[in-house]
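Researcher: Re-running this chain for the archive, since the previous output was lost when a drive failed. Same request as before.
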Amino acid sequence: MYTGYDPYYLDYGNDRHRRYPRGTINIVFGKSLTYLLLYVVVCIWVLAIVPKLFSLPQVGEPLTILLVLLPYLFACIFMSMTLSGFMTSRESPMLVFVFTSVILLFISGVSWPEAAIPPFWKVVGYLFPSTPGIQGFIRINTAGASLHEVAHEYRVLWIQAGVYFILSCIIYRYQIIRSRKMIIKQYRYMKMRRMLRERE
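Model: Regenerated structure tokens:
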């Protein structure tokens, strides 16, 4: 009978939870929806309110922009959650952001001609959601492209979102298992110390 705190009892429960890591998927998906709600507000401000305030030209259909924005946000969120598993401090993401922002801007084909970008850097650019996201958004918002005309970028964004979702689940699962092992190890140590004190 369970009479006290036991990490095996609380964290594992039964063998079913060991075999099916549904909890990890729920955590990743739940956090991504929270981030999505936050960034939707930012996107409304940047893409809808600011252009109206400064009378910036917008020729793209709002529905098309929204459909492209959805996989772009998911891809960015899942990629960030994947990279967070490799960060050792709170300051590390800011350093990575500062170091990579200019590079990603250049290889996206906006500030540098796409024809002048070497093939290697083109491949590297498609590892990040910024490249298809920027290219698709510019074609929609400046040339009035439809969703069919940016189908390539749209598919790439969904593929990136799926791949980074799987990777983030793997990273989070590893972190959860590592945390459980540390808690169990600490619990056993504290339990052993308590038993030694009682014997004394």
